[in-house]
Specification:
single chain; mainly alpha; 11 helices; globular
């Protein structure tokens, strides 16, 4: 167990060094976040202006909190657009990470080029993800508290099963069903490393988040002491640091995912990662 934990932190450190070498990869999470906000706005504005929410609440009460049918259609569209944006940007980032692992120097255009080339696979996977998301929501709404628990368990199982789907789609160009099967197969080989590696990343990220918390707390304290200008300034800085932290977190987890995939699928140590650590991490006892 201690060896696995040590390997996990070493893998996390290697992932961090890859990101430091290619800082421009941080743009992909920012693009993903910006596009997500656009998707949110494109749904929120029409819903806020076209739906009579008082009448909607009355309908919910009359139907035992079950929403009308049109809500499921809107939810599916929202799920699809959201998943498509996230998967597209993750595919671009993974393609750049794979190029780095093969000794090349990736450019942002390389990532977007590969993502555009995988549009059929991304579209299909977004469709499957949106369908699963909607089905889980239906289960949650139909069965109340029990449904919420069941939906949460099924959602967690689905997330685990599909852990490697995006790198499989990017590298192997397979369809969604074949990608899920390959993801499950790879996960059997890398479950321990995925777990401890993510723990190592989360530990590093939690340390990086401490300054954000301190700045936010200091800003709130200053506001309560009628020091509005410096308090607002600190809150703005804390907000910017929070966005950067989210981008770093997303990039690190995606790069780590790509590294795990390459070693498990191709039996090749990604450039920037220590061979002894990788071989020890994936050793079969």
């Amino acid at each position: 167990m201690f060896t696995r934990m040590s390997n996990g932190f070493a893998l996390a450190g290697s992932t961090w060094r890859v990101l430091v070498k290619d800082k421009h990869l941080l743009l992909f999470p920012f693009v993903s976040g910006f596009l997500f906000l656009l998707v949110m706005a494109s749904f929120a504005v029409p819903l806020a202006t076209l739906v009579d929410w008082k009448q909607f609440q009355q309908q919910l009460q009359q139907n035992n909190n079950r929403p009308p049918v049109w809500v499921y259609g809107v939810s599916f569209a929202f799920y699809f657009c959201t998943y498509f944006v996230i998967i597209f940007c993750n595919a671009a980032l993974i393609s750049c990470a794979v190029l780095r692992f093969h000794g090349e120097t990736p450019r942002l255009s390389d990532g977007f080029r590969v993502a555009f080339a995988r549009l059929p696979q991304i579209f299909a996977w977004a469709l499957v993800s949106a369908t699963v998301g909607l089905l889980l929501k239906v289960i949650e709404n139909i069965h109340g508290k029990v449904g919420a628990i069941v939906a949460r368990l099924l959602g967690s199982a689905w997330s685990i099963m599909t852990f490697f789907v995006v790198p499989v789609l990017v590298v192997e160009k397979t369809g969604p069903l074949a990608a899920v099967g390959q993801s499950v197969s790879l996960l059997r080989k890398t479950w321990g490393e995925a777990l401890v590696g993510n723990m190592g990343l989360n530990f590093i990220l939690s340390l990086l988040f401490i300054p954000v918390i301190l700045l936010f707390h200091a800003g709130v304290v200053l506001l309560t002491k009628d020091m509005a200008a410096p308090g607002i300034a600190l809150l703005v800085v804390a907000g910017i640091m929070f966005l950067i932290h989210m981008a770093v977190s997303s990039a690190l987890h995606t790069i780590f995912l790509a590294a795990l995939y390459q070693y498990a699928a191709e039996d090749r140590v990604p450039e920037g990662f220590d061979r002894a650590v990788m071989e020890s991490a994936f050793a079969r006892g």
